[in-house]
Amino acid sequence: MKTVHTVEEVRAAEEALMARLPDGALMQRAVAGLVTVCARLLRESGGVYGARVVVLAGAGNNGGDALWAGARLARRGAHADAVLLDPAKAHAEGLTAFRSAGGRVVSVDDGVGLRSALAQADLVLDGILGIGGRGGLRGDAARLAALLREGRTAGAVVAVDLPSGVDPDTGETPGDAVAADHTVTFGTLKAALVVDPGAAAAGTLHFADIGLGPFLPEAEMTVLDDADVAALLPDPGRESDKYSRGVVGVLAGSAQFPGAAVLATGGALHGGAGMVRYAGPDAVATEVRERWPEAIAGPSPDAVGRVQAWTIGSGLGDGREDDVRAALGAGLPVLVDADGLRWLPERFTGPALLTPHAGELSRLLDVDRSAVEARRLHHAREAARRWNAVVLLKGSTTVLAAPDGRVRVNPTGTSALAAAGTGDVLAGLAGSLLAGGLSPLDAGSVAAFAHGLAGQRAAAGSGYPSAGDVLAALPAVLRSLRGPVGGG
Ligand SMILES: NC(=O)C1=CN([C@@H]2O[C@H](COP(=O)(O)OP(=O)(O)OC[C@H]3O[C@@H](n4cnc5c(N)ncnc54)[C@H](O)[C@@H]3O)[C@@H](O)[C@H]2O)[C@@H](O)CC1
Ligand SMILES: [K+]
């Protein structure tokens, strides 16, 4: 599991650690990690000796890191230029070290010199802003970010700690931000690095351990890995029967969208539930049974018999309010997707997982879709609090926010999932995990993780996979995550 901490938590941990170390030692740890990555990247493009490095240094410690790193690379034979955004406030020790290693300072006002240095650079260090940054980049900093974004440098852009201009705690980019190829981050992850649009601006992540671990609190925000997901997946042992593995009800699909019923039921069948009961119109139920003979079907939630959780909403269309209210009123764990989101109660009192995409969440919260895309964490958290439900916001980075403040960010997302019907598969799968006894936060994060891997696997096979391809890839993904089932 990867942990993500806030600026406040990082600062407190740094303070506690610095009190035990000689002056400047912590920064040197960060610089050592940064230089290791830079040297590796430069070796790939011909070596450190003779390489051209440009340091963009802001007025804070982030600029200090970058200047020290530039100094170390210069000592190893690189030609280093530094652009100081606020020369009077530049990090004094870093600048002295940079100059005594032979580094040159280029004025930010020297347009010709600046462009030529950037154009020739093998590596650009973005040390404009780190965790002290607030608001979008302004003035010269914005101009530099624009030059980098326009590709005015052939070399790799390496962000120090985080790409400058991205809000550290949210991943939002309120104004201009640097688009990096790599980011070397110190001590722990920040939200800026895992939530879009920040995550996209960070490029490839590298972690430099500076020893903060023992001083950091338990993280509210986490990113699960394969082992976490394997541990969370319900394990149907030798003793379990179809009922103890959970029965999930699927209220999805309509005459207009019968495929949603088929895909959600398919997702539910793959999620480990012992039985799936489908509730919907006869014609749709017939299609579901033709595709999945193992599913049981009935015309309404009341008619299908007992279940342990409901998946509600994918492709439901109009006029199903009574059915939705019946399923929601059963007092069972529920997953509400798509059209089901139109009939939410004021507040949930039992376990609930909502799975909107940005458009659906924007309608729920009555804000613009672009506002949701720009502030994904903020809006997911707000909806989680308002409805007392876990909110899984689908999209470029899928985030899950729980009403108690916990957040999970899914690391397996892929653009391959941007196809009609993939959300129905996810809803079925997550509902099945709810029926298997997982909490809404666990069910949603495990489902998103496996669904993302299935999307990647399907894309490797067909390039532009359909929802059916993603569904077909699920069994192999789940098998490889949890190992063989039923071994006892
Ligand atoms: N505290 C420590 O001991 C360590 C800090 N480290 C580095 O220090 C960084 C944090 O340093 P600082 O706290 O000095 O903060 P930063 O260097 O991130 O930036 C702070 C400066 O930028 C200005 N600023 C804020 N928002 C701005 C904006 N939108 N446009 C222009 N200027 C803006 C502030 O007024 C302030 O002068 C970390 O990200 C990391 O790179 C590392 O060296 C590890 C050790
Ligand atoms: K930076």
UniProtKB/TrEMBL annotation:
It comes from the Bacteria. It holds the Pfam family YjeF_N. Binds 1 potassium ion per subunit. AMP binds at K394, G395, S396, T397, T398, G423. GO terms for biological process: metabolite repair; nicotinamide nucleotide metabolic process. InterPro entries: CARKD (IPR000631), Nnr (IPR030677), Ribokinase-like (IPR029056), YjeF_N_dom (IPR004443), YjeF_N_dom_sf (IPR036652). Residues 10-218 form the YjeF N-terminal domain. GO terms for molecular function: ADP-dependent NAD(P)H-hydrate dehydratase activity; ATP binding; kinase activity; metal ion binding; NAD(P)HX epimerase activity. PANTHER family: ATP-DEPENDENT (S)-NAD(P)H-HYDRATE DEHYDRATASE (PTHR12592:SF0), ATP-DEPENDENT (S)-NAD(P)H-HYDRATE DEHYDRATASE FAMILY MEMBER (PTHR12592). This is Bifunctional NAD(P)H-hydrate repair enzyme. It comes from Jiangella mangrovi.
